[in-house]
Amino acid sequence: MILHTYRLWLALSLIMIGLTFSPHTRAQDGPSAIPEGSGSIIQSVSWQLTGENTADLTERVRTVVQQFEGAILVKDEKDLLVLSLPSAKLTDLHQKLSDLGTLTSPEASDEYQAPTTLLRLMLGE
């Protein structure tokens, strides 16, 4: 019985040591914990939308975002919306938001390299 308990304890100890030092379980390491090439999975884009009434503009933007399949509102604060959406839908979203006010996007290229975009949309008057 003692030998069986010892073997069980040894096996569990080895498993715990292996998990502790495994590079895939160390998320607290910051950027080194992110898989190499993850920049090709998601990209960050910033736009600014100005209109006449920021409160009304925010509500209209929420309505437009809900029309896009795969779009997720990540953060909703005063004058700032952060959403995640498929990059293929950025051009359509840009067009719809341009109908609501003046939309500026500092990114010079319409070619998006990653399949998903994290869009930071600042709203103002």
What would you say this structure looks like, in words?
This protein has 125 residues and is an alpha+beta fold. It folds into two domains: 2-26; 41-124, no CATH class. The protein is 33% helix and 27% strand. A five-stranded mixed beta sheet has the order 2-3-5-1-4, covered by helices on one side. A hairpin with a 2-residue loop joins strand 2 and strand 3 (80-86). The radius of gyration is 23 Å and the shape is elongated. The model is unreliable at 24-36 (pLDDT under 50).
In a nutshell, what does this entry contain?
With 125 residues, the chain is of the alpha+beta class. It contains three helices and five strands.
Total helices: the number is 3
How does the overall form come out from the CA principal axes? elongated
**Uncertain runs with pLDDT below 50, 5 residues or more?**
24-36
- Percent strand: 25-35%
Helix content: 25-40%
Q: Tally of extended strands?
A: 5
Secondary-structure map with pairings?
Elements: H1 2-20, E1 42-50, H2 54-66, E2 72-77, E3 80-86, H3 90-98, E4 102-104, E5 116-124
Parallel strand pairs: 1-5
Antiparallel strand pairs: 1-4, 2-3, 3-5
Short key terms for the protein model shown above:
125 residues; alpha+beta; 5-stranded mixed β-sheet; 3 helices; 5 strands; 27% strand; elongated
